[in-house]
Amino acid sequence: MAINFEEALGIRPKALVFREKRGDILAANLANADTPNFKARDVDFKSVLKQSVASGVTMERTQAGHIAPPQQQIFGANVMYRNPSQVSLDGNTVEAHIEQAKYAENAVQYQASLQFIKDGFSGLMTAVRGQ
């Protein structure tokens, strides 16, 4: 009997990839904290989860006059601009303390995703050994 890793691990590998891509976005925000007119961006995990679990409905552009979908997406969820509490004089919307907190939170969630995958493989190994 073959082991189906997608069925055994569920959505955990996708969550790990999402956390990695979100970390890249948050790191770019921090790296551009002093760049004039840079707009901080982020993506919502709930919308990604909803897209991943949904029935697979996708946006399609069938006519030249149709509006194209947003350019950057992660698993079907749009990367959105963050609403700052105070924009700097040069138009930059990165708030370093918020970005650092979001980055740290994402790092913890990344580690949790790794642990969930590890636990999934441990369960599979236990099943294979027949223990």
TrEMBL record:
Residues 22-39 form the Flagellar basal body rod protein N-terminal domain. The basal body constitutes a major portion of the flagellar organelle and consists of a number of rings mounted on a central rod. The gene is flgB. Structural component of flagellum, the bacterial motility apparatus. Part of the rod structure of flagellar basal body. Keywords: Bacterial flagellum, Cell projection, Cilium, Flagellum. It comes from the Bacteria. Belongs to the flagella basal body rod proteins family. Pfam families: Flg_bb_rod. This is Flagellar basal body rod protein FlgB.
